[in-house]
Design brief:
heterodimer; A: mainly alpha; MetI-like fold; 13 helices; B: about 350 residues; alpha/beta; Rossmann fold; 11 helices; about 30% helix; about 20% strand; transmembrane (chain A); transmembrane helix (chain A); ABC transporter permease (chain A); MetI-like (chain A)
Chain lengths: ~290, ~350
């Protein structure tokens, strides 16, 4: 101690730019990710500003103006099988579609990451208990599980989102467990244990920062899956109920018109595609940008 | 209760009391032999006894897989031993001395300088972590981290806020040394701590270690496969073979007059600078036996040049040749039945 006491008082060190700032600058340099992010932001704005953007009410129909093609005056994107304006319905549909795509993922992230990190760090019996329970959910294909759950609970927005959350928890837990198991073997965790720190302190200070990134990237990629599954549930009549606008449901109700007016019938599908591709590209870009050594 | 400094550690047993006494340390790792297969275990450490004196450097050498690193991990309690006692300055670890107090006094530096630093923490945060865990206030812990960085030759104002990937291997290993010293330990275990560094950096770090040892009154256990480095650093040397101690003694005694044929073979395997001393045949052939199934009798008998029948029957104890120099070889133990064993002194 005497040697240390003689040294001058500590001065504020120059801090390297933080980790997240580095991630941000790497993302900004990737045009594909920037474009995907721009699309996502545009979609969110579209959903938020739907009443201002939509030229008509989404549920106002006209029996004499059914299934108009794209470009009809007053109906820039045509009309659906009940004569409602497609453009307005697509804009309003973004609200429920994004909600159902986005809400289940963070909830599942919270539970799945907690389970996975506990299993990965504790190892042994705790790990076996948690992960084998998770495996039970893996026995069912995720679509089937979502359909079975919302079918049992009854149709409705809340039940659909709940069943999607349940579907995603095991997937996120699996990824969290494997990432945590990998980090746990590293010497810096051993060094922290050798310092006498308690397991909870080690998890909070040394494990979380190194595992949340990869788990987050995986969860981002689930947003597109969630949207597609949600659309599927609505398509089957298990999610949103008519006359609410939701892309999956619109795809379902327009399916009878596919021979009459295929371009209009495909529009909700195109939006689902654009949204899910954007989320996937963004999550891929994030994965790349989070690798420090790249 | 956040303190500004760690409570000082006091020397309890006096200078004659060994700092660390290890007795009968055992660690077996079970291996799966199929559902109906026999239960088997890798005998990574199988009955190791030694002691470390206050203020000395004990060098530990041996081939890969001889149990050096497992011994180190057992000593810092990263894993629990299956059997054996560890007595630290007269107090039995786990009984008289709590694990938490013991851990403050024994720290370790790992071989892989990158894997042993959290990539998401600045190096000052990595160094300050240990003192904070032991109740030092965050500001004081950071101040201490800066002092230690300066002490290991890294200018705090330039380096404290950096992340591990922004440093070179040698700089990172200096950070790891600072981190190990942050808890003011009395014993530092250096597990191949310089093996991954290139030669010029290695020399600098070795000199730093010697300076720190003198300034902080440290005791080292220095594990390496590099005999030259061990010869430079160690006061005493322990040679391990297949989870056991083959020979232990003062550095010069072991290097100049090895009593165990395995030690002799290891020394003969050192590259020589003098062309006249170079040799063509390897001094030791073959791999070490499978530690799941060690050979009966002396564990070195399948590779030993002096093997006799008795070596395949009798497991040699670690016998003292002279005080402070012991070897686990029948040739070193009088009356063992080996033709080269010394006569029983009447």
């Amino acid at each position: 101690m005497s040697v240390l006491a003689a040294s001058p008082p500590a001065l504020r060190a120059e801090r390297s730019p933080g980790y997240w700032r580095g991630v941000g600058s790497r993302i900004a340099r990737d045009p594909v990710v920037v474009a995907a992010l721009a699309v996502i932001v545009a979609l969110v704005l579209m959903a938020l500003l739907a009443p201002e953007l939509a030229p008509m009410a989404p549920d106002k129909g006209s029996m004499i103006r059914r299934l108009k093609p794209i470009g009809t005056p007053g109906y820039p994107l045509g009309s659906d099988e009940l004569g409602r304006d497609m453009l307005s319905r697509l804009i309003y549909g973004a609200r429920l579609s994004l909600l159902m795509g986005v809400v289940p993922v963070p909830v599942a992230f919270l539970f799945g990451a907690t389970l996975g990190i506990v299993a990965g760090y504790a190892g042994g019996l705790v790990n076996a208990l948690i992960m084998r329970t998770v495996d039970v959910f893996y026995a069912f294909p995720s679509v089937l599980l979502a359909v079975a759950l919302s079918g049992t609970l009854g149709s409705g927005l809340g039940n659909a989102m709940f069943s999607l959350t349940v579907v995603f928890i095991p997937q996120i837990a699996r990824v969290a467990e494997s990432v945590t198991t990998g980090v746990r073997k590293l010497d810096y965790i051993d060094a922290a244990r050798a310092s006498g720190a308690r397991p909870l302190t080690i998890v909070l200070e040394h494990v979380l920062g190194n595992v949340l990134g990869p788990i987050f990237v995986f969860a981002t990629s689930l947003v597109s899956v969630s949207m597609i599954l949600a659309s599927g549930l609505s398509f089957l009549g298990l999610g949103v109920r008519p006359p609410d606008a939701e892309w999956g449901l619109m795809l379902n109700t327009l399916r009878t018109a596919i021979y009459v007016n295929p371009a209009v019938a495909a529009l909700p599908g195109v939006l689902i595609l654009i949204t899910s591709v954007s989320f996937n590209l963004f999550s891929d870009g994030l994965r790349g940008a989070m690798d420090v050594r790249s | 209760m956040r303190a500004a400094v760690l409570p000082p550690l006091e020397d309890r047993g006096g200078p004659a009391q060994p700092l660390l006494t290890v007795g009968g340390l055992v660690k077996h790792f079970p291996v799966k032999g199929g559902v109906f297969g026999p239960r088997r275990a890798v005998q990574a450490v199988d009955g190791v006894d030694f002691s470390v004196l206050k203020g000395e450097t004990l060098g530990v050498v041996g081939e890969s897989g001889c149990g050096k690193s497992t011994t180190a991990r057992l000593l810092v309690r990263l894993m629990a031993p299956d059997a054996g006692t560890v007595i630290f300055d007269g107090e039995s670890v786990g009984d008289a001395l709590s694990l938490r107090d013991y851990r403050r006094q024994v720290q370790m530096v790992f071989q892989d300088s990158y894997a042993s630093l959290n990539p998401r923490l600045t190096i000052e945060d990595s160094i300050a972590f240990g003192p904070r865990v032991h109740g030092v206030a965050a500001r004081a812990a950071t101040g201490r981290a800066h002092d230690l960085l300066a002490r290991v030759g890294l200018e705090p104002r330039r380096f404290a806020g950096r992340y591990p990937h922004e440093l070179s291997g040698g700089q990172r290993q200096r950070v790891n040394i600072a981190r190990a010293l942050a808890l003011e330990p009395r014993l530092v275990i250096l597990d191949e701590a310089v093996s991954a560094l290139d030669k010029s950096v290695e020399a600098q770090v070795l000199n730093l270690l010697l300076d720190l040892k003198r300034d902080f009154g440290l005791t080292y256990i220095f594990i390496s496969h590099d005999l030259n480095v061990v010869r430079f650093m160690a006061d005493r040397v322990m040679v391990m073979y297949l989870g056991r101690v083959a020979e232990i003694g003062a550095r010069d005694a072991v290097f100049d007059a090895p009593a165990h044929p395995y030690t002799a073979a290891l020394l003969a395997s050192m590259p020589k600078a003098d062309p006249a001393e170079r040799r063509d045949a390897p001094p030791l052939s073959g791999d070490p036996p499978n530690p799941i199934d060690p050979p009966p009798g002396c564990r070195f008998n399948p590779r030993c040049a002096f093997v006799e029948d008795v070596c395949r029957r009798t497991d040699p104890p670690l016998a003292a040749l002279v005080p402070q120099h012991s070897a686990a070889c029948l040739m070193a133990s009088s009356g063992s039945g080996h033709s080269r064993a010394p006569e029983i002194a009447a």
